[in-house]
Amino acid sequence: MTNSNSNLVKKLSMAASGAAVMALGTTFAAPAQAVPVAPGFDLEAAGVVWDDVEDNDGFLSIDDGNTSNIGGGGDHFDEALAVRIGGEAYGVPGTLDLVDTTVTGTPQLLDNLDVTVQLQANTVNPIMRQLVEITNNTLDDINTVVQWINNTGNDSNQRNIGTSSGDLAEGLDDRWIVTADSSDLAQSNTETNAWILYGPGSPSVTTSNVVMFENESAFGFAGSEGLTADFNLTVGAGETNYLMWFVGMAPTGNDGLSLAAQFDDTETDFFNSLTSDLSQEQLDRIVNWDVASTPPESVPEPASLLGLLTVGALGAGSAFKCKRGQKA
What we know:
By secondary structure, the protein is mainly beta. The protein has helices spanning 253-261, 269-275, 280-284, and strands at 9-14, 35-37, 41-45, 48-56, 59-66, 82-85, 88-89, 96-99, 102-104, 108-110, 113-121, 127-135, 142-151, 159-163, 176-180, 188-196, 209-211, 226-235, 240-252, 318-323. The protein has a single domain (38-314), classed as Beta-galactosidase, Chain A, domain 5 (Distorted Sandwich).
C-alpha cells in the first residue's frame, strides 16, 4: 500500500475531465499528449485510489484499492485485473502510456494475436474500466481463451453478497458478482468490489467458466480468495475484437450492489459516461457487450455512488502518484 509519508512519492496533477481520453479509433495508438510512465504509480480519481499500477511477475495489474476517503477501507485487492491470452500473460515490458486517468499498455504478441490492454479510472464513480484489444493479423481464424484473473483482497473472509441472477452462487448466467468481507450489507470497510463480467442483451461472447478462485504465483496462490473468468474467443483473420470489464469499489455491501445494478442497462447516461470516449465501431466490436448503435435515451442519470454517500467535497481533479522506490 502507499506510504503517504514516503519522500519517494511524487504527485503530479492531472487535468479534470469527464472523458479521460479522446477516442482512439479502432486501435490504441497513443495520442500525442500521452506521457510514458514507468510502472509503479497510483491513479487517484472519484475520491478513491487505484494503488500501484505495476508489472507484477509478468502481469500488468493493480496491486490494491483504497476507498477510505469515501467511508470504505484500504485493502480492496491483493493484485487484480490480470489478463492471460491462450495461457500467456500480458505484462509490462517497458513503459505505460498515461493520459489523465487512462493507462494504455504496449502491444504484445500472445497466442499469435496482437494484444493491447487499457485501464481507465472513472473520474465520477469509483470504477475502473479494462479494455482488451485483440487483433488477428494472420490469414487464419484463431481460437483462444482469454482469462480475467483477480485476487479480491477479501482474504479468508471472501463471500459473494450478490449476483446479477439474484442468488449468491456464481454461475455462467451471472453478468456481475459482488464480493465483500462481510454479509452485513450496511457495514462499512468490508472491501466490497463489484465485478462486471459481461453486459445485458445478447453479447456474442459470455463467460465459459467463472470461479471464485485464483492460483497465480504472482498473486500469492490465494486459492479461494479470488475471481477468475474465462472467455472462449474466435478472432477472424484480419479482425479486431475487444473484451471490456469493469470493477467498482464501494464502502458497503449495499453500495456495491447498487453500483453493480447500474450495469443492467446500457442505454443510460451512466453507462454512456463510462464508454463515451469509444467510437461506435469500437463498441460494435466489444464481443462481451451488446451496445445499442443509437445514442442513449436522455433520462435522469442515476445518482453517482459518491453522491449517495455523506462525504466531504472531493474536488473535481484527479491525480496519480509515481513511485520511485519500494512499496511500503
